[in-house]
Amino acid sequence: MSLSTPPAAHFRKAAASSPQQACVMVYRDNHRTLIWDDKLAHPVATAARPVPLEECLTLDHHQFEALQAAIRADRPIRGALTVIRGSDGLYEFSAAPACRASAGTARLFFDHREYTAFVHAVRHREFERSTFLSPAA
After folding, report:
1. Which helix (H) or strand (E) holds 72?
2. Are the C-beta atoms of residues 119 and 125 closer than 8 Å to each other?
3. Residue 122 in contact with residue 134, Cβ under 8 Å?
4. Which backbone phi and psi does 105 adopt, to 5 degrees?
5. Lesser CB count within 10 Å: N end or C end of the chain?
6. Interatomic CA distance for residues 50 and 5, integer angstroms
7. CA torsion angle for 105, 92, 98, 35 (degrees, to 10)?
8. DSSP class of residue 16?
9. Residue 130: predicted pLDDT
């Protein structure tokens, strides 16, 4: 099944982030969870323009729930997504090698503030699937 990607306005970031702050962006629907970096937004992006799928990491809901559970339990992140802190201090999000065919090949880079805001949001359940679904979904 090929699903279209939503526009940037449908993604969410941590509540602790300021409107101008770049962040880990999350989108959830009935079929998948997308992770995107809003620093990749095209300068002339419109509200209706879909985020390019090649800029996203695509996880199924079980994979994203496992990621959140690891963060909440202060366990290493293992599974479909890898998060590695580089020597430059940036956190790289990418698909685990075994999951690249389904999750994508995007490599997303976040600074400490962006990563910390994401972790805080996960711990405070801001990215729960139920908060993304409208009653008609």
Report:
1. helix 61-72
2. no
3. no
4. -110, 10
5. N
6. 5
7. -60
8. T
9. 87
